[in-house]
Amino acid sequence: MAAHRPGPLKQQNKAHKGGRHRGRGSAQRDGKGRLALKTLSKKVRKELSRVDQRHRASQLRKQKKEAVLAEKRQLGGKDGPPHQVLVVPLHSRISLPEAMQLLQDRDTGTVHLNELGNTQSFMLLCPRLKHRWFFTSARPGDLHTVLDMAKVADTILFLLDPLEGWDSTGDYCLSCLFAQGLPTYTLAVQGISGLPLKKQIDARKKLSKAVEKRFPHDKFLLLDTQQEAGMLLRQLANQKQQHLAFRDRRAYLFAHAVDFVPSEENNLVGTLKISGYVRGQTVNVNRLLHIVGHGDFQMKQIDAPGDPFPLNPRRIKPQKDPDMAMEICATDTVDDMEEGLKVLMRADPDRQESLQAEVIPDPMEGEQTWPTEEELSGAKDFLKESSKVVKKVPKGTSSYQAEWILDGGSQSGGEGDEYEYDDMEHEDFMEEESQDESSEEEEEEYETMTVGESVHDDLYDEKVDEEAEAKMLEKYKQERLEEMFPDEVDTPRDVAARIRFQKYRGLKSFRTSPWDPKENLPQDYARIFQFQNFTNTRKSIFKEIEEKEVEGAEVSILLVHLVCCFHLFLFFLLGPQMSVLNMVVRRDPGNTEPVKAKEELIFHCGFRRFRASPLFSQHTAADKHKLQRFLTADMALVVTVYAPITFPPASVLLFKQKSNGMHSLIATGHLMSVDPDRMVIKRVVLSGHPCKIFTKMAVVRYMFFNREDVLWFKPVELRTKWGRRGHIKEPLGTHGHMKCSFDGKLKSQDTVLMNLYKRVFPKWTYDPYVPEPVPWVQSESSSIVPQEGME
């Protein structure tokens, strides 16, 4: 008997590999120098041993520690600018002059007084602590001054009341400062030693709980005696500094002394000499200078005088009055600086940046040649060919008779005749129904409430502005209608809908339908600047600032052309050109008044302050963003406005000026991008009512009021509030009634809608000059009222 032999299709199993597994070395030898794709694509990094890794980590820690110590020594030291401290009292019971007097400790160091406008400021030099401070103050009622001073201050010293901490004005000021971005801050309590000894412990506990809500993990110091003031100064000197991103990448300056030299031709034009300590980055004389509240200017030259407030001053012979040797005024400071001036940089006209903020549009840039007669005749022939419609008609029908025959005429004709007989009956029924609905809406809008009797106050009625109250009531009604019926508008009866909505178009899908961002741009877009890639431009500019060393000075006099003023806050610009800024904001919970789009608002964007009329739109990741007619409180919105180019990060605060002159905070947020191509799309919704419903067909009326409008909007898709979709089949009669088909049967209570869209643009209302607001003061009833005599 022959043995079985396996055929060629027998399964062949792998042989077992016995012995040890392959190591890394054998794998590399077998690879013969070949590397994996991931290894080739990654950056080759040298592998360090454990000892080298520990040594490298210790070196990095040492470098970071040395950088922190160097920054701490430079601020307020002999080689750096003085430590600028802004003192802000948060309660009306706090005595600001008493606190400033305690900080002027002549036993600690030398004090130099200086008057700046309505606020007192002084320079404190303390050689024992190797530190010097420049103290300024601002009342929380003067909100814009507080915000501007906080942008240039190194530390903010908040003064608290021992019983309440802060009042409503102080709380409002804190909300604005938190939204703008807080630098380093310190809390101090004034007046706690004046309380009875038993109540001091309870007051500290209550104050600690109140402070923990606003300032978690922060402790407060006392400021009642000279010894406590000395401890506070040590805390300010040794405190770790917090950085604000929008100012660290720029050079900025607070004016210590100002001298205006008018020209010979005109007294209103001249040279303004500003002296101060440059902070942040170094200064380039060819760049532009922005003075908050006044605009952008060019510099003429940068001078480096001697330090007017040296930490270790030269010894002067003692005089009879020792106080006279320690106090100097600002005018003497200017005279001393004029003696040993050293010119560091002069402006180069070829390299100096221009003040031109807008592009000068060329009216002939978009011109086209007139088409020839052959092109016009060809276009007419094409329109004739495209307008021809193929229809099925009986034999022997003329072309004139075929124009009156509709597709599926037998079915539609019967329905049209039936509809015409019952037209008047249905109109009467719909009128009665609409009257009932309007009466029910009126009843729902109002409700009865039992209130107690009040005494009529004539003084209160005199302060009420009836016209402003009527306008505010109308805004509240519009905001409520927008919430109930978003984007719905009534079709006008005196103007044809195809004319009223001629700039609108229909979209199959708002998210996916194409829309060219360069289509039908307004004339204002010819005046603005646009980046090819905003993100890359921003990175390259910041990288240039960090790497390139620009010649500058820590103490300098800047020469610009400006009208003299008191408080000057200077920032050095990266570019003054106008563009379209997009900011993400959220409604402030303390403000409930309706804010409509295109209303004039006051902006605090980074270091700039200006007025403009913005647009509100949804904050989405799509390429089209729907316009919001009101600033809603339940979600974040994007504010679009014409303004000078500002590079993020930058905080944004929105204020609205009231009729009494006060500025009310309405929204806070941050700068998102500079992008003119971001499309804000306005939607209008036309509504109609089905009066006859068949299986998937319905007769809709009240959306249009003539036959031509129905034919004009026939290609636009319809939708209903209950989710049905459809389109217009044909018009019925001459009163705007139309036969529509849907993807399902309609309900009798459903509403037929048509969405139309158009792109909108903000108004060019940019104004860098913001009027000074009426200061906020605290009344006896703990409410914020305007100061008397300022209204």
TrEMBL record:
Alphabetical keyword list = Nucleus, Ribosome biogenesis
GO biological-process terms attached to the record: endonucleolytic cleavage of tricistronic rRNA transcript (SSU-rRNA, 5.8S rRNA, LSU-rRNA); maturation of SSU-rRNA from tricistronic rRNA transcript (SSU-rRNA, 5.8S rRNA, LSU-rRNA)
UniProt entry tagged with the keyword Chaperone: no
**InterPro entries, A to Z:** AARP2CN, Bms1/Tsr1, BMS1_TSR1_C, G_Bms1/Tsr1_dom
Q: Which GO terms describe its molecular function?
A: GTP binding; GTPase activity; U3 snoRNA binding
On the tree of life, the source organism's domain of life is Eukaryota
* Matches recorded under SMART domains: AARP2CN, DUF663
Residue stretches of biased makeup (Basic residues)? 13-24
Q: Where in the cell is it found?
A: Nucleus, Nucleolus
Q: What are the Basic and acidic residues biased-composition ranges?
A: 46-55
Q: Which residues form the Bms1-type G domain?
A: 81-242
Gene Ontology terms: cellular component: nucleolus; preribosome, small subunit precursor
Enumerate the residue ranges of region (Disordered). 1-67
Free-text function comment from the UniProt entry: Required during maturation of the 40S ribosomal subunit in the nucleolus.
Family of the protein in this entry = Belongs to the TRAFAC class translation factor GTPase superfamily. Bms1-like GTPase family. TSR1 subfamily.
Q: What is the protein's given name?
A: Pre-rRNA-processing protein TSR1 homolog
Q: Which organism is it from?
A: Mandrillus leucophaeus (Drill)
Which gene holds the coding sequence for this protein?
TSR1
